[in-house]
Amino acid sequence: MIDSVIREANLGDVPFLVDTIIEAEKSGTDKLSYCTIFGLSVEEVKRYLTEMFNEEIDGCELSVSSFMVAEVNGQVAAAASAWIEGIDGISSSVLKGNLLSYTLPKKCIEQATSLNPIIRDLHIEYIPNTIQVGSAYVSDNFRGNFLCGFLIRKKIENLLKSRPDISEAFAQIFECNLSSIRLCEKLGFRKVMIKESLNDNVLNYLPFNRKILVKNELIIK
Amino acid sequence: MERTELVTKLTAVFRKVFNNDSLVLTDELTANDVDNWDSLSHMLLITEIENTFSIKFKLKDLNKMRKVGDMIDIIMSKF
């Protein structure tokens, strides 16, 4: 096994967390929804994601505090995120929506308005008081070491220390993202729902037209 | 602006964003109670509210909005 240090992420890790969000969103394709939905270049997406992480809002997929990172030889090699849904009585979707509306230019929001009905079909609600696994990514040089698996497992353990009453963890994955599906299966997650969009245009904006919800009955505690 | 007038205007905004003509706002309503209230819809909702009422929220305002009643109070405070 590779010699790594697992720790909570901090603001110094933001550039790697931005890459993590981007690669996870692409789900192994070249389709980055932040670009297609908001009409942004990859460089602009990186800049806005950095701004949103730097706001240090806790409790959603764009929160530094949701992430753990793995360091190998002093270099960040992998990152993964998870959070407790609705921990302060406010859903992670609302927190992320707040960051998007506050950070992105008006023209991005206008473009997204027309696309909302197209991508709405794939929406899966987050259940309050459950653990939601967000993004995971490992650099090419460090693949094959189960680093993302260790990170997700450790993050769930840490979240359960503060909320031992929580009994379920979920992850939402595009069905084309076979490596993430296999990773979750190794961690004990099982498929519980499939959402499909029959809209012909959805593949112009999202990596795939089917999304799966996987669930883990937590026995780590 | 009176609260009643504000709620009427806000209801129209919600019905437009969530494409639901029967949506009724209550102070206790949250994102968990409304179908399709995801991050993108929320972003559109906030933008539509800002345009309708000619206001601009601060991020700290937005993150205090746990339920519709909070949202109404914060919009009221802008006038």
Tell me what the structure shows.
The complex is a heterodimer of chains A (221) and B (79). Chain A has 221 residues and is of the alpha+beta class. Chain A has one domain (5-217): Gcn5-related N-acetyltransferase (GNAT) (Aminopeptidase, 3-Layer(aba) Sandwich). Chain A is 38% helix and 23% strand. Chain A has seven helices and seven strands. Chain A has helices spanning 14-26, 33-38, 42-54, 92-103, 106-119, 147-162, 178-186; strands spanning 5-8, 67-72, 75-84, 131-138, 168-174, 190-196, 210-217. In chain A, strands 1-2-3-4-5-7-6 form a seven-stranded mixed beta sheet, with helices on both faces. In chain A, strand 4 (131-138), helix 6 and strand 5 (168-174) form a beta-alpha-beta unit. In chain A, helix 1 (14-26) packs across helix 3 (42-54). Chain B has 79 residues and is mainly alpha-helical. Chain B has a single domain, classed as ACP-like (Non-ribosomal Peptide Synthetase Peptidyl Carrier Protein, Chain A), CATH 1.10.1200. Chain B is 56% helix and 0% strand. Chain B contains four helices and no strands. Chain B has helices at 3-17, 39-53, 59-62, 68-77. In chain B, helix 1 crosses helix 2 (39-53). The longest helix of chain B has 15 residues, at 3-17. The termini of chain B are close together. The mean pLDDT of chain B is 94. The interface between A and B is medium-sized, with 31 and 22 residues.
